[in-house]
Amino acid sequence: MDKQEIIQITNAFLVEEFEADGSKITPDANLKATLDLDSLDYIDLVVVIENNFGFKVNPEDFQGIATFQDFYDYVADRIKQKELV
């Protein structure tokens, strides 16, 4: 799966699951502020990621994720790790 596919899949489920405005989802936008995430929303986000990409998410991984680009990079890295196993 390439980076563009990851971005398309991710943006689609963010718009659907979190009722986000797709036009505000840009690589440099702040993930938490744009999606108006609270602690329960992060749990939902973890479940959606695991269901869509097939890897386990550690909640503490989100501490280093501020922007959508950080999020895309995280997903891409985890998919790459999964493929190497």
UniProtKB/TrEMBL annotation:
Classification via InterPro entries: ACP, ACP-like_sf, PP-bd_ACP
Keywords: Cytoplasm, Fatty acid biosynthesis, Fatty acid metabolism, Lipid biosynthesis, Lipid metabolism, Phosphopantetheine, Phosphoprotein
Gene: acpP
GO cellular component assignments: cytoplasm
Broad class of the protein's primary localization: cytoplasm
Post-translational modification: 4'-phosphopantetheine is transferred from CoA to a specific serine of apo-ACP by AcpS. This modification is essential for activity because fatty acids are bound in thioester linkage to the sulfhydryl of the prosthetic group.
Protein name stated in the entry: Acyl carrier protein
Protein's job: Carrier of the growing fatty acid chain in fatty acid biosynthesis.
